[in-house]
Amino acid sequence: MSHIGKFSLLVLFFSSISLFAQQNSKNELAIVQREDWNAQEPIMEMKVHKPAFITIHHTGMPQKPELSIEKKLQALQNFSQKDSPMADGSIKKAWADVPYHFYIATNGEIAEGREIKFQGDSNTNYNLDGHVLIVMEGNFNKEKVLPKQWKSLKELISYISGEYGISRNTISGHRDQAETSCPGSNLYQKLPQLR
After folding, report:
1. Which of 103, 92, 12, 20 has its CA nearest to residue 57?
2. What is the pTM of this model?
3. Which of 6, 15, 31, 171 has an alpha carbon within 20 to 30 A of 183's alpha carbon?
4. Are residues 79 and 156 in contact, defined by beta-carbon separation less than 8 angstroms?
């Protein structure tokens, strides 16, 4: 075999390795997709936006490690897509879909919520345009962030930041955007570590 032929084979070999590494780096972060948790279709039109910021929320409810992430997302979507009573007695109007783009369960599993190309929703008044909403399961005014959750949040932030070119300096807590205690003091005090 000629030197040119050997060189061509080497280039092809290393190109294949490089492509394989790139594909694996994209797939390293396991995310439960909408079809995997049997998401229903949105019930109304949603506003398309360009992801530009990362905003962290908590569910504000006690952690439920005994439930699967699929059940959690199905329950959240069911709550989201109808008029639902809130803890303070007010009624939340139906949203098109799950309000958050990503959900992190107590065991660290990550699930896709609303498609990231669509603007999220909130019970509080702030401009959601461009905000990628991540919700962590728990009430972090009372509970601690679990190690697996924290690890997954860091990995998810790295993925979103790289995939959408979003600076880590844009990371904020819900309370930075609106009148709320969300994402709870035990999570909020850890956010500077993400930046």
Report:
1. 103
2. 0.83
3. 31
4. no
